[in-house]
Structure formats: structure tokens, C-alpha cells
Amino acid sequence: MNRDFYSKLIFEHSHPGRQGYSLPRNAFAHVELPAGLTRQGALDLPEVDEPTVVRHYTNSSNNNFGVDTGFYPLGSCTMKYNPKINEEIAADPVMARLHPLQPASTCQGALEIYYTLQQALSEIGGMSEFTLNPFAGAHGELTGLMTIHAYHDSREDWGRTKVIVPDSAHGTNPASAAVCGYQIIEVKSLADGTVDVADLKSKLSDEVAAVMMTNPNTVGMFEKSIPEIAEAVHACGALLYYDGANLNPMLGVARPGDMGFDVMHINLHKTFSTPHGGGGPGSGPIGVRKGLEQFLPNPRVVKLADGTFDVVCEESALGRVSMWLGNFTVEMRALAYIMSLGSEGLMKVGPLAALNANYIMHHLRDLYLLPIEGPCKHEFVFDGLIDKSTGVTTLNVAKRLLDFGFHAPTIYFPLLFHESLMIEPTETETKETLDRFIEVMRQIAVEAKENPELVNSAPHNTPIAHPDDTEAALHPVVTYKEL
Fold first, then answer.
1. For the whole model, what pTM was predicted?
2. Predicted pLDDT of residue 63
């Protein structure tokens, strides 16, 4: 094999007899394990010395890409900078070593953090109360729908079996509704990317439990008809759910509760700058309007009359969605971010997110196809290159970006366009970073016309150049086998 020494698998560094660490002798009495619990053959582990292990994984980690290493314009995911002070606060041993079964009297500081964040999110979202229990955005969606289910059940309104979801929705919306036992009804979008209100109204009935919407939607356009939609949804007895994945551009501009939404979730790992990616950790708190608080999941953190805090469970709640109170250290980071910015700083998040997105869109629209005209909010979608004759696809553009040290934007989502290229710069990036990204994107468009093979064969500067995506999907190799 001609691969670089540090790009090999740890198994490829193995040599019989090499050791990096020896376990101490057994200081306890010998115990015979049941035969059914013991391994019948030798454990196939690499035999390597410690320096090789350290160097291998250190060099492998340098191949990771994240917001600390470069620009990450992943549309609909809000991969923005996580301030390091948040990490320091979350790592405080006084908090990090708390046990969830401790009596409330011994962890008043932690409960105050929970309560303060609940109050802050309620104010930001225009809601009556929040719970921090859900572990992620999709988990928050499911919890929000379970809250809606509990509300209808409390009214003995058991005929509501459908949830309406726009065709531009995040994929988790219909998935969460289906897991909650609902039938999914799709509503179409107009040419400008917004929901077709007439189509939506035609599908409202006393069988509809909720309508799920994202505002701004997944193509970055503001849904201007929300008040009209909210009125129609409420008139048929259903509730309006807000997918908070795109809350960033709304901060300091509008609140979902004021628009008419009844239930919402917030992705702390998107809007409030906590870790994101790799499957976790995350946090998806949900908020409800007045009159729905009693259905929120147990347990709940409340402030008592004497100013202390307690954890309570109520019979009217939908039950539990997590064993404890969510991802505490993620919530600590979010509160640190909110308090660091303060109300004045939070008011600037939305406008800056929208400004950065529109800046990039304006400087690229002469080379990349913009299917929806008009100002966007925090993100926008191109439908690939304007010049389709080159044969260069959105996938090729995305892979070529890797050669310049940029992570690729979201590609082929939303499904409204064949060659979707979804870009979200976030509010934390500088003009210099945006200008460099624009320069590279324009260079790739020129390359696509003058030297398309250069783009089609990209990336050229990464450990793995251009794998066969179809083969990888159909026949993935997920375990090591000696060649």
C-alpha cells in the first residue's frame, strides 16, 4: 500500500509482540466466568506501541473539520462558532460532578441555571413556559407533538389523527409526527418558496391535530402569511407547531409566540452556540403558550414562593421523555451564551445572520442559479450553476470546495430543486471570511467552464480523493479486514 504512514488504519501499524500498556496483575481472587460469557477465540486487537498510537490518533484528528478549523456554511444546520468561555463554564467541576439523584436542596445552583434558561427561552420565543428535557431537535419535535397529543386527549378530541407538513419541511418533521402516531398530510409550496395557503386551508379539518411550520422556511424565505395560517389552524381546533431550527434570523426581530404558534422547539446547538455535529450532544427544549404548560413532560423545575427551586412531577404531564432534565452541560453553555450577549447582543443576531447570507447571495447570483428571487433570511438555496452545459454538478462544486479549506454547504436539500446548494454563513463570520468564500465559489464556476475535469475529479488535497459514492452506499466497508 502506498498510502501515507499516518493515513493508515491503526490495524495496519500492528506488529506481533508490541505493547503500549500492560494491565497490573490481578489483585483479586480468581473467578471462573460462565462459559457462555467468555470469548472462544483471541481478541483481534492491534499490537502497537504507545508513541505510534498517540501519533496515529493525533494525526487522524487533524483531518477532522469543524468550526474551529474553518468556515462551515452548512445550510439549515447553523454551524457557528462556540465561544470557549462556554466550555470553561460547562467544565466547572462544581457543576460537572453533580449527580442527578441529589436532593434539590443540595443543587440549588444547578436548578437555578435550569430555571433561568427556561425563563430566558420563554421570553425569546414568546412562550409561557419551556422544558429543557429533550435531548435534541428531533427529540424536541417529538416531545412537542406528544404535548399536542396530550392536549387533544385532555379534551377527549380523539379524532385528530393527521398532521400537516409543508413539502419544504425538514425531514424530521414528518418523521417525528409519524413516530407520534399521526398520518402525514403534505401541503405544497408556491413558486416563491412559501406555503400555499389555499392548499393548506383545503386540507384543514377536525381530523387535523397540528400544522408544523418552519419560519423562515428551509429555502430561507420568511412566511409572511403566518397570522392568516394561525387563524385558520385555530379555527379548526388544531394547534400550530414551530420548528425552531431556523430561529437564528428571528432573534431580535420576531417571536414565534407573537405570530400565533402554540408549541415550539429550539435547537440550543444551533441558535445558542453549543456543540453540534457527530450525533451529539444536543438539546431541543420545547416551549408552549399559556394553557398548555400542564402537559409538558416530567420532571419540571419550578421556583417556590421562598425563592428556592425544586423538581416536581405532575399527573397532567404527558409523562417522561428523558430520565432526568436533559443535557445539563449543553444547557449551561447556552445560558452562558445568552447572558454574555445580553438583550442588546441578542437583538443583533438575526439581522447579522440575514446580512451575511444576503451578502454572499448577491455576489454569486450571476454564476449560480437563484430559483427564488428576493431577500433571504439566514440562508438561501442555489439550484447549481447557471451554466448547465459544463456537466459540473452541485456535488462536484461541494467536493472542490474542500480543496480550499471550506466545508461544503448542504447539497441536494431541500428537495424542491434538482441541484440544491444550500448556504448559511451564520452571524459569527467576518466579512473577510465571506469574501474569501465568494472568491473561491466564483473561481470554481470559472473552472467548471474552462476545465470541468478539474472540478469533476475533486477533491485533490484530502486524504481520500474521490470515492465511488454509489459503491460506498451499496457496499460499505465498516470493519477492518487485513488485505
1. 0.90
2. 83
